[in-house]
Amino acid sequence: MNGQIDRRHFLKATSAWLAMGAMGSRMAFAEGSNLRLIFWGSQTRAQVTNAAADLYAKREGGSVQSEFLSWNDYWPKLATQTAGGNAPDVLQMDYRYIVEYASRQAIAPLDEFIGDALNLGQFDKDQLAGGSVGGKLYGISLGANSCATMINTDAFQEAGIAVPTNALTYDGLHDIGAAFKKANIRGGMRAIADTSGLEPVLENWLRQRGKALYTADGKLAFDADDIVQWFKLWTELRDAGICVTAEDQALDTGSLETSMLVTGKAAMFPANSNQLVALQALVKDKLALCGYPRVAATTGGGHYRKPAMLFSVAGSSKQKAAAAKFISFFVSDPDAAKLLGTERGIPCSAAAREAIAATLNENSRMALDFVTNLGDLLGPIPPSPPKAAGEIELSVLRTLSQEVAFGTKTPEKAGPEFVALANDLLSRG
C-alpha cells in the first residue's frame, strides 16, 4: 500500500520514450516467444507467479523472464524502463495509475486481442470496467479485493481483548488502545499502525462521511476542513498511545516486511484483503481480518471491490499479441489458478474461481469470504483517480502526515496546505 510513483519522473521518462535494483529476477525457458514480466510484491507472490510462468512456458513454448521488486522500488524502475523504450512486455499495473499510463501510451489498448489471444468470456464485467480508460481496455484485473484491517489475533488474546469484527469503529479504537496500554504486552505493542498518510484509509473515511477523494472529472471531492479533521483524528490516537509512535511508523519503508504488524509494533494494520496470505507467511501469530474502522456504528459504504492489481501490455512491446495470450492464461487457466490461489485477490474468471474453490487454505478462504460478504461496508467503486493522484499521496499526503506526526505542523496548518498543493498538482493536468 505504501510508496508511490514520482510523477515528475514518470512524465519526463515517458515523454522521452514517446519522442523517440530488483529484489529478484528469473526466467522460465523453452522455445518460442520470449516475454519479459515485471511486478511488485512479496517473495510469496514471486513464487506463485514464477510457478505459473513455468507452466505457461512448458505448455506454449518460449520463455518468461520475470523480475519483482518492492512497491516503493517498482514505480521508479518501471518509469526508467519506459523512458528507454525497453519496458517489459507484461507489467503489473495499479488502479490508481492506469489513467496516467494509458494517457501517455505507456501501456497498449488490448481490445483488438479480445476473443483471440485474450479470452475474457467468463470474466467479471465490473472488473473489466476497472481496467478501462476512455472506453478502451488497458488492464486485466488479476483479482478483486477490498481494503481490510489485518489483526494479530494471538496478540489480542494475550492482552485479554476481544478480536475486532466488522463493527469496529474509530471510537472503539480508543478502548482497544487503552486496553493494550494496560496489558503492556510484547514491549508495549500498540493497537494499530499510524496510517494517517495512506490514501486508501483516508478515502475510506471520506466515503463514510459522504465525500470522496476525487470527482469524476478529476477534482478534489473534499475540502481543507476534512483534512484538518483527519489529521486531528490521528493526532488524538497518537497522543493517547493507541497507534504507534511517529518514530516507529517512519521505519515502515512500504514493504510488508517492514510493516508495523510484521515488526510487532502494532496488533492491527490497515491493508488489502489479498495481502492476508503474504502477511501470514511473514508472522507466526494467527492473523484475521475485518473492515476498516467505521466513523460511527451505523455508518458504512467506505469499502468497495476493486482490481487488486492488473496486468497491462507495454506500449513499446513488439510482442503485444503474445503478451495478451500470457495474460489470458494467467487469469483464466484452471491450472494456473490453482498455483496462484488468492494471493492477488479473488479470481475474476468464473473458471478460475471454480478451479480453486476446493483447494483454498484457511487464509485464502478467509479473504474470499471477507470480500464476498462486506455487507453494509460496501459502496460503489469510484472513478479511476486523476493523473496526479500518485504524486498527491507521496508528495502531499504522506509528507504532511509525517510533519503532523512529528509535531512540526499542526493539523490546522496542514489541512489548507494539503488542498492548495493538491489543487496545484491537479491543475497541471
TrEMBL record:
Q: Where in the cell is it found?
A: Periplasm
A single MF term (Gene Ontology) = ATP binding
Q: Does the keyword RNA-binding apply?
A: no
A GO CC annotation given for this chain: periplasmic space
Keywords in alphabetical order, please.
ATP-binding, Nucleotide-binding, Periplasm
Q: Which domain of life is it from?
A: Bacteria
What PANTHER family does its record include? ABC TRANSPORTER SUBSTRATE-BINDING PROTEIN YESO-RELATED, ARABINOSE-BINDING PROTEIN-RELATED
Q: Hey, which family's this protein in?
A: Belongs to the bacterial solute-binding protein 1 family.
Q: What is this protein called?
A: ABC transporter ATP-binding protein
Q: Could you tell me which species this protein originates from?
A: Phyllobacterium myrsinacearum
